[in-house]
Amino acid sequence: MPEEGHSLPYVANLSILFKEVPLLERAAAARDAGFTDVEFWWPFGSAVPAREEVDAFVKSLAGVRLRGLNFFAGDMAAGERGLVSWIGRETEFADSLVVALGIAERTGCRSFNALYGNRLDGEDPAKQDDLARGHLDKAADAAARIGAQLVLEPLSGADRYPLKTAADAVAVLDDLGRENVRLLADLYHLAVNGDDLDALATTHLARIGHVQIADAPGRHQPGTGSLDIEGHLARLQNAGYAGFVGIEYVPEPDTVTSLQWLPKTRRGRA
């Protein structure tokens, strides 16, 4: 991938990068590789981690800035994809919101990914959507009090997950009507689902709160697939997007080697 094209700042997703080392060592590894900004999925095994776990996580971030954090999304390895619309798990969602806000107070993180959740057998989709609306409204209120945003992400590879295109997510945003709840545009997921990536800059720009990248097919580093990632990012920046770009790919053969596409001078900022 050529260096020129855009100057958007990158943020390393440390739930998928630097998995060669334990989670609490990844921020240091990212810093050593030149990154100044990082993001994570939910970094704990439950919605309510022990205080010691939270303290250790926050301490591990020394030398980098936490820019994004997912709310607890359930058992991702088992196919669960968020609790926002999951009837019966309201307490876990509320608890993880409190934990996330506590981490934000200590780190300055101001962006939270609220994975919507799969459709459930035996549950009315409309009731799930009603629950999601209430959860997002409550979380948006809490985020607004600290000047933070929520982002809503379309996903691929999850048949029961109802948000597959940018338009799917924007419909939820329109229904919710909250200024600080925005679209997470992951170029990989949208491309795999057949969405129009050019429309991100021409149609959905005003709704985008965060962008993530991986090449497709394969979900590996740029240059391993067929996506014009640099071109899409340049179009987004030229249209007015000025936020972060999350690096969220499965590295091959390892993280450090996979980063050869990105010069060290573009991995961090003052």
The average pLDDT value, as a whole number, equals 97
Order of helices and strands: EHEHEHEHEHEHHEHEH
- Separation of the first and last Cα atoms: 24 Å
Quaternary structure of the protein = single chain
Write structural notes for this entry.
β3 (65-70), α3 and β4 (111-113) form a beta-alpha-beta unit. The two termini are 24 Å apart. Helices cover 34% and strands 13% of the residues. It has 270 residues and is an alpha/beta fold. It has helices spanning 26-32, 51-60, 90-107, 125-144, 166-176, 187-192, 199-202, 229-239, 255-258; strands at 10-13, 37-40, 65-70, 111-113, 149-152, 181-186, 208-213, 245-247. The model has no long low-confidence stretch (mean pLDDT 97). α3 runs parallel beside α4. It is built from 9 helices and 8 strands.
